[in-house]
Amino acid sequence: MVRSIGLGVQALALLLCAAPEARAACEGPVALQILGSGGPIAEGSRAGASALVWRDGKAVLLVDAGSGAFVRYGEAAARFEDHAAIAITHFHADHVADLDAILNSGAFSERTKDLPVIGPAGSDYFPGVRDHLRALIDPETGAYRYLSGYRDGTEGKAKLLPVDVGSEGPVQVLDDPVASLRVTAIPVEHGVVPALAYLVEIAGKAMVFAGDQNAMSDGFVAALAGRQPDILVAHNVIPEGEGQPRGLHRPPSSLGEMAAAINPRLLVLSHNMQRALVRQAEGEAAIRKHYKGPMVVADDLACFRP
Ligand SMILES: [Zn+2]
């Protein structure tokens, strides 16, 4: 399910899997599973951006829940009860549209423990995580007011704890000793959209979710330069070359510069859009001018064990 590029991937104990084996292959001390490897356009079989961080067979962290993530979440056999938190990078629909569906699914679970939902604070253009949740589950005005038990932990539901992260950062947003999980939010530049990246430290391993960011995200690179995480997940949205929109995303050459500075043990390209994939060789060459380490293009349900 995953095409590997470059050297040394086996040394990272990279596991490739697809449903229904996904759950078994993602077991182990720590694993990353890409639930949705696609973008905002309905153009194939890829779900929108979403990933799980697994610890000892439990999906402790859900990062984004884009369109289609609900189905992949079920295929991965993730359990709502096991989440230490949900972290949303930003509120474009291809990153959050299926949060509704996953919360609806979670309403059938046994979970009653509070659940932090982390995301960017709002702006004039986008509601933050608190307002987004209010729009869904407010008992008076929410689109899904029948789920308003999530607001206060009534009706047998977990109480959702919104964590709004401003544009100052990095800031540690979660420290869960039970899961040995620490999450740090790092603001990134994504046009007018308030957006975050996440550094996830878990049981001695480190993963970085770069989120959607353009080439002006200097603070993100500075915060992680030389950090050498086990895995860096980055978008693969636009091809190299002139005439491409640069306001929201890094082109491949900029991805390469970013990866070279952060120097992960594995670069996972996700958020794969067709306009980039049809010119993938050109994009990889642009990345390779800067970043020389292992690199893969992920498909839905791919698992990586650092
Ligand atoms: Zn976006």
Automatic annotation (TrEMBL):
Alphabetically ordered keywords of this record: Signal
Keyword Signal attributed: yes
GO function terms (MF aspect): 3'-tRNA processing endoribonuclease activity
Domain of life: Bacteria
Domain Metallo-beta-lactamase span(s) in chain numbering: 47-271
Signal peptide: 1-24
PANTHER family referenced in this protein's UniProt entry, alphabetically: ZINC PHOSPHODIESTERASE ELAC PROTEIN 1
Protein name per Swiss-Prot or TrEMBL: Ribonuclease BN (tRNA processing enzyme)
Annotated source species: Blastomonas natatoria
Phylogenetic placement of the source organism: Bacteria, Pseudomonadati, Pseudomonadota, Alphaproteobacteria, Sphingomonadales
